[in-house]
Amino acid sequence: MWAFVCGTPRGRVVTYGQVALELGAPAAARAVGYALRALPPDTEVPWWRVINAQGGISLRGRGAGADLQRARLEAEGVTFDAEDRVDLRAFRWWPDEEESARLAPR
What is the mean pLDDT of the chain? Predict the structure, then answer.
């Protein structure tokens, strides 16, 4: 999971469900969220590039964590609409088949 999230390019996003699907566990989107939330504060894993399937930020209770995620995405050029959502057609990253094979668990 970490390799897939780390492979997400700057200025692009993936969804929790997409991460789960790419790793062969399509029903594990919530587990992806739990795993990202458990990362230490100084992690180099770009957790902020993972958003929900509606293009929104899903941090529980919103607040400072959601503000930080949005600020990091905006600093990378990701834009939000009036409803605080990212246009997934414009910003979603889909790795090619070769890259998916490289990131797949062995």
Answer: 89
Residue range 60-78, pLDDT digits in tens: 657 888 899 999 999 999 9
CA atoms within 13 A on the CB side of 2: 8
At the top level of CATH, which class does the domain 2-103 belong to?
mainly alpha
For residue 82, give the DSSP letter.
T
Residue 61 is predicted with a pLDDT of 59
Q: Provide DSSP, 33-52.
A: HHHHHTS-TT--S-GGGEE-
Distance of CA 53 to CAs 41, 58, 75, 96, 105, Å? 24, 10, 21, 20, 23
Q: Give the start-to-end residue ranges of the domains of the chain.
A: 2-103
